[in-house]
Every structure is written in C-alpha cells, then in structure tokens.
C-alpha cells in the first residue's frame, strides 16, 4: 500500500491485519520503515484497530533524535508483507516449514513411537502367554474321627480315599490315639485351590456316616 492509503479506513485496517502477528514493519527491531509509516498515518489510530494502536504508541515513545538513529531507509514498503517482518509472510513460512519438515518430523516420530510401542506390547503378550501359569495349591491335614473304638479304621480310610476330585491328591496317613482306645485317622492331601473346595471335601468325607463322626482341619498351608 502507498502512503496515501494510510489516510483511509481501509488502509489502516490493512495495516492492522499486517501488524496482527508482527511487532514492526520490517524485521525484529524498529527501523526507518516504521518511522515512514508512523508519519504516513499522521494521527493516532483508534481502538477499532488495536494492533496499529499498539504499534503506534510504541513508535511514538521514541524521541525525534532516537527515530533518526534507527537503521534502514525511511520509506513505506511498496506492499506490506513483501519486506521482512517479525514473522515471515505465509508463503515464506510455508517454504521454511517445508524445508525444515517440522510437522513431517513430528508425524514420523509419532508413527515410529507408536510402532515401537505396539511391537513391545506384542512381544510382552507373547512372552506372557508362553509363561506357565502358577497354580495355587494347598497342603491340608485332616483329622477324621470315628464313632467309637469298634469302627474299622482301615475300612474308613479306604472309604475316604475313594473320594476323587479334579485337583485332589491324597497323601500319607496315620492313626493317632485320642483316648479310651479310640484312634482318629490323620490323612494328608494336596488340593488345587481353584478346583477343590475344602468345605465340599469335608462334607464328602462326613457322608460316610457309618464310619465318620466328624472331620477337622489339623493343618492348612499354602504351597
């Protein structure tokens, strides 16, 4: 735009748009181009063009002697945006971005990070699937008490061992005196916790009611 345009409303609005993302007319510091445009305006803009008003007050803060010392030629650019500025023109910015490939780099980094993450997750899942599952087991010692001293303990033990469950393994046993000639059967077993209910197991043993008076848990240990 020419100096005459700065006297018109359209010219000031165009300048306001130009200064929206710039601090000065050219470059990163005040120059004679700022002084030329400042003089071309002739008067302070109003609040309808806030970017011009900001810039105008800043240039106005310089004294006459300070303005004369500013670098550059005192002339208004033929067209705003053709000269340098605090931020390059859109086309120049696009070219710079294309050269640096900033956004492209971010996309590539994101894609690479996602690929690495997926590979690690897949490897972890495969490793976990091949790892043997830990089976929780318990070692239990049961006290199986007969009705009296006339109960056939060998037959009672045989009855107990007939109980078969998935996850149940019977172990060693012995007869332990409890008094008055009566002995109890103390028998060990190992159970898989998820498959065998201890309550159900004791109920199964007590079902031999002709032999068994009661069942107690003498010891219970996680393996």
UniProtKB/TrEMBL annotation:
Low complexity composition-biased segments: 78-91
Domain (Translation elongation factor EF1B beta/delta subunit guanine nucleotide exchange): residue spans on this chain: 137-223
Basic and acidic residues: bias regions: 66-76
GO cellular component: cytosol; eukaryotic translation elongation factor 1 complex
UniProt key word Protein biosynthesis: yes
MF GO annotations: guanyl-nucleotide exchange factor activity; translation elongation factor activity
Biased composition (Acidic residues): 96-111
Keywords: Elongation factor, Protein biosynthesis
Transmembrane residue ranges: none
Region described as Disordered: 66-111
Domain Elongation factor 1 beta central acidic region eukaryote residue range list: 102-128
Record's function text: Catalytic subunit of the guanine nucleotide exchange factor (GEF) (eEF1B subcomplex) of the eukaryotic elongation factor 1 complex (eEF1). Stimulates the exchange of GDP for GTP on elongation factor 1A (eEF1A), probably by displacing GDP from the nucleotide binding pocket in eEF1A.
Assembly mode: EF-1 is composed of 4 subunits: alpha, beta (alpha subunit of the eEF1B subcomplex), delta (beta subunit of the eEF1B subcomplex), and gamma (gamma subunit of the eEF1B subcomplex). Interacts with elongation factor EEF1A1.
PANTHER family per record: EF-HAND AND COILED-COIL DOMAIN-CONTAINING FAMILY MEMBER (PTHR11595), ELONGATION FACTOR 1-BETA (PTHR11595:SF21)
Family, similarity comment: Belongs to the EF-1-beta/EF-1-delta family.
Protein's UniProt name: Elongation factor 1-beta
Protein species of origin: Laodelphax striatellus
